[in-house]
Automatic annotation (TrEMBL):
One protein family per Pfam: DUF533
InterPro entries, A to Z: TerB-like (IPR029024), YebE (IPR007486)
Protein name per UniProt: Tellurite resistance TerB family protein
Amino acid sequence: MFDAKSLLDQVMGAASRSGLAQGGKTGGSGDLMSRGKDFLSSNAGGLAAGGLAGLLLGSKSARKIGGKAVTYGGLALVAGLAYKAYRDYQTGQQNGGQPPSPQQRAPLELEAPHGTAFDPERAPGGSQIVARTLLSAMIAAAKADGHIDAEEQRRIFSKMDEAGLDSESKAFLMDELRAPLDLDKIVRSATSPETAAEIYAASRLAIDPDHAAEKAYLQMLAARLNLDPALVDEIEMAVREQEMA
C-alpha cells in the first residue's frame, strides 16, 4: 500500500503553498494560510484552476488552518479537531444538553490524541487506513457541488506530476477522482464512532457549505454516519474556532 499519511500531508502542504503563492498574507497565531481564492466556488473553472490542492483543500476553513498541518501532519490535525469536538460535545451533555461555555471548551490538540479512541494508530488497520479513508472522504465532499470532467482531471494530473507524487499515490487519487460519488463507500469506511467523526470533520474541511448541494451532502453524511446533531454542531464550532485562531 502507498503511504497514505504522507499523501495526506502532501495535499495539505500543497494547499498551504498554493494559498501563499496567491500573494496572501500570513495571519496571527500560527495561521499560515491566505484567504485567497476559493477554488471550489466555480464548477466551471475552480477545480481546474486550483489543481490538486484546490480540489481537496480549496475551502476557506482548510486554507486558514492547513498551514498547521504542514507542521503537525494532516492526519493529526483532523484527529485532533474531531477529538476536541467530541470532548466539547461530552461537556455539553454533562451540561444538560447546553453548549459548553468558552471557558469549558477544550483546546485543539495539534498532535494525534495518543492513547484515546481517536488515536489513528488504534483504529482498525492503523493510521494508513484512516488517512486513506479521509482522503477519499475529502474527494467525495468536493464532488458534492459538481463533477470533475476530463479536462479538469488532466490538469489535476499535471499538478500531481509537479508535486512529485509516486505512481501509487497518483493512481489512488485518479481512481477516486474518476469514480462517481459513492456515499455508501464513505459510510462503510467508518469502522468506529471516532472514525465517523473524523470523516465528517475532514469532509467539512474540504468544502464551504454555502451552497444547497454542499449543505445537503453534509447533512446526509452526518445522518448516514449516525452522528448526534449536537456533535455535528461541535465539529462545526471547532472548525470555526480554528478559522479565527
